[in-house]
């Protein structure tokens, strides 16, 4: 065992092509594939060669997040589209230096943040409200109303694989219907369309000709039946949503149509792939066999474990979801998933809110200045805890502080919190799916932090394989679009798995079982202390500013009334 080092490595069960075949594949390009990668914080457009899937051009921009209230997260749908067009334009400009042009792009795929919900006017094409992000918790009251109606937050888990939670699109659409007059009126007039971000993008790229989604995104709405892979009438009735508002559900990989928008630099190109970003990452990590597991480390963490062609329904709060369906006639592959709501966001909080970190990108440097976290534990439950706890009433805590605690210990504890939350989910996955999980595939922006990767291996006691792609989401979406029937830029052969750009760095555990058990036990105790922090108060009279103005005016009012009464009395007396 190598201690504390990351080793350049190829995944143990990924056979690579010979040098001759590799050279040959690089020369015999069959065409280019473009990918729109719409994430929570960034939007990008990448262009890949095929069949070797080498990224030859890319452009990314930041996407602003609007927070009108604590726990509310929104984005401007029009900014999304403008950013997509800008990224595509800039990426295409890079093609000539690689000997290509825009006309070489054969097809385009889309991968997007899931659950985030947009409603728009089918007549004008304009959004009726900002996009409600996946982590937005304004629908808490709506959740309570629905749970009160069905008596159990897991009432629909057997049909959808999901609990009733603020996380999912059905609750967001219901909230918009109940709270936004423009949405309510558009629904009455049957001109309201609703969907996840992929549907909004496709609608705009095709000038409203296509209102579609794929099974991976649809499986995250709490409206799709996993067995039929269609919108469920019972769910639609429960949430009060008309099916005509929703997109048609398709497979992930098929020819959907042509891009026709005059605003788009991609006009005339084919659309042939749609995947939710975490499912695209699972495919891009080549986790195509049951038991293979990946974690994407970004502002949040998303762990998916491939469970094959049979859905596994969790008893420990994990989500059952569609992993991919690579064609209308292809088998549907399922996964179980656990989400860590706050990962990289905890480092941003340390930078922007409490000013412990000058720059979140320096977290590794600051954390390495101390050998341990000094028994400090950070539970970043800013908006509650997700899988496997699903406790909306939890709130963040930093515990174990002493007079010797420095900011470096807190930064290291923040990194460790990401690792502990990952272990929470991995432990459940192993119990649920029955497959041995003996390694963890890792990607995402945060994986550039070597200390985080080492801490992760030390926390879970198994190797961590970090993809050298850093973000395999766009790569997975590229493969999905390229292999669609009718495009045929490549043939997806999961048993062979010989893709040149799938290389890994390996981090091996350096801790003992005893050490891991002790530290994980303390993490569990810290989590227990974060639960139940939000306690609903009984409604009492609130003294608003108006109340206080009224109360403060009473003495003056009494004085004026009594003075007027005395004046009247004196005049009456003098008249006598």
Q: Could you characterize the architecture of this molecule?
A:
With 576 residues, this protein is of the alpha+beta class. It has a domain at 319-530: ATPase, nucleotide binding domain (Nucleotidyltransferase, domain 5, 2-Layer Sandwich), CATH 3.30.420.40. The strands form 7 sheets. An 8-stranded mixed β-sheet has the order 1-24-23-22-16-17-19-18. The chain is globular and about 65 Å long. Mean pLDDT is 88; it is low at 1-27 and 540-554.
Helicity range of the residues?
A: 25-40%
Quote the beta fraction.
15-25%
Q: Termini, distance in Å?
A: 113 Å
Low-confidence stretches: 1-27, 540-554
Task: Write down the overall mean pLDDT.
Answer: 88
Strand order of the largest sheet: 1-24-23-22-16-17-19-18
**Count of separate DSSP helical elements:** 17
The CATH topology of the domain at 319-530, please?
Answer: Nucleotidyltransferase, domain 5
CATH class of the domain at 319-530 reads: Alpha Beta
Largest sheet: 8 strands, mixed
Structural features:
transferase; EC 2.7.1.30; alpha+beta; glycerol metabolism; 35% helix; ATP-binding; disordered N terminus; six-stranded mixed beta sheet; Carb_kinase_FGGY_CS; Nucleotidyltransferase, domain 5; 17 helices; 576 residues
What's the topology here?
Layout: E1 6-9, H1 19-27, E2 31-38, E3 42-50, E4 55-62, E5 74-75, H2 77-93, E6 105-112, E7 117-121, E8 131-132, H3 140-150, H4 157-160, H5 169-179, H6 181-188, E9 192-196, H7 197-205, E10 212-214, H8 215-218, E11 224-225, E12 230-231, H9 233-239, E13 248-250, E14 253-258, E15 270-276, H10 277-284, E16 293-297, E17 301-308, E18 319-324, E19 333-340, H11 344-352, H12 363-367, E20 377-379, E21 397-399, H13 407-433, E22 440-443, H14 450-460, E23 464-467, H15 473-482, E24 504-507, H16 513-530, H17 545-575
Parallel strand pairs: 2-6, 6-15, 10-13, 16-22, 22-23
Antiparallel strand pairs: 1-24, 2-3, 3-4, 5-8, 7-9, 11-12, 14-15, 16-17, 17-19, 18-19, 20-21, 23-24
Helix pairs in contact: 5-6, 10-15, 11-13, 13-14
Domain Carbohydrate kinase FGGY N-terminal: 33-284
Pfam family, one: FGGY_N
Protein name: glycerol kinase
């Amino acid at each position: 065992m190598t201690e504390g080092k990351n080793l350049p490595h190829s995944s143990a069960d990924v056979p690579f092509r010979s040098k001759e075949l590799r050279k040959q594949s690089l020369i015999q390009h069959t065409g280019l594939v473009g990918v729109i990668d719409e994430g929570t914080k960034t939007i990008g457009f990448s262009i890949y060669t095929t069949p070797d899937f080498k990224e030859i051009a890319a452009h990314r921009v930041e996407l602003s997040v609007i927070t009108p209230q604590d726990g509310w997260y929104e984005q401007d749908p029009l900014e999304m589209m403008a950013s997509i067009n800008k990224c595509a334009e800039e990426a295409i400009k890079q093609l000539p230096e690689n000997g290509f042009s825009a006309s070489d792009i054969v097809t385009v795929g889309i991968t997007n943040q899931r659950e985030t919900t947009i409603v728009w006017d089918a007549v004008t094409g304009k959004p009726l409200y900002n996009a409600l992000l996946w982590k937005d918790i304004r629908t808490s009251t709506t959740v309570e109303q629905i749970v009160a109606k069905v008596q159990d937050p897991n009432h629909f888990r057997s049909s959808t694989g999901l609990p009733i939670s603020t996380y999912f699109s059905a609750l967001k659409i219901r909230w918009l219907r109940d709270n936004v007059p423009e949405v309510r009126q558009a629904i009455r007039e049957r001109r309201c369309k609703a969907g996840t971000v992929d549907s909004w993008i496709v609608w705009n790229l095709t000038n409203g000709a296509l209102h579609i989604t794929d099974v991976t995104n649809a499986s995250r709405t709490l409206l799709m039946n996993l067995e039929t892979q269609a919108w469920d009438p019972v769910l639609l009735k429960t949430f009060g949503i008309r099916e005509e508002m929703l997109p048609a559900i398709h497979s992930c990989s098929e020819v959907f149509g042509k891009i026709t928008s005059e605003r788009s630099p991609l006009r005339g190109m084919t659309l042939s792939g749609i995947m939710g970003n975490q499912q695209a990452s699972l495919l891009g990590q080549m986790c195509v066999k049951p038991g293979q597991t990946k974690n994407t480390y970004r502002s949040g963490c998303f762990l998916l474990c491939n469970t094959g062609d049979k859905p596994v329904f969790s008893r420990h709060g994990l989500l059952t979801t569609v992993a991919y369906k690579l064609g209308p006639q292809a088998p549907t592959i399922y996964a179980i998933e656990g989400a860590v709501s706050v990962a990289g966001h905890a480092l941003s909080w340390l930078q922007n809110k409490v000013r412990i970190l000058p720059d979140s990108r320096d977290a590794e440097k600051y954390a390495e200045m101390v050998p341990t976290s000094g028994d400090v534990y950070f539970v970043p439950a800013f908006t509650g805890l997700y899988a496997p706890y699903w406790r909306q009433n939890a709130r963040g805590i930093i515990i174990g502080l002493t007079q010797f605690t420095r900011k470096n210990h807190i930064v290291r504890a923040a990194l460790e919190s990401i690792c502990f939350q990952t272990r929470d989910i991995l432990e459940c996955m192993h119990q649920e799916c029955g497959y041995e999980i003996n390694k963890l595939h890792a990607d995402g922006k945060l994986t550039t932090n070597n200390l985080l990767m080492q801490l992760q291996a030390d926390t879970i006691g198994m190797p961590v394989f970090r993809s050298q792609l850093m973000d395999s989401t766009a790569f997975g979406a590229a493969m999905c679009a390229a292999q669609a029937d009718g495009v045929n830029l490549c043939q997806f052969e999961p048993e062979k798995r010989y893709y040149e750009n799938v290389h890994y760095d390996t981090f091996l555990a350096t801790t003992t079982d005893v050490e891991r058990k002790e530290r994980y036990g303390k993490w569990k105790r810290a989590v227990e202390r974060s639960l139940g922090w939000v306690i609903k108060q009984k409604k009492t009279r609130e003294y608003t500013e108006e109340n206080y103005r009224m109360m403060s005016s009473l003495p003056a009012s009494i004085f004026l009334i009594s003075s007027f009464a005395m004046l009247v009395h004196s005049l009456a007396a003098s008249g006598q």
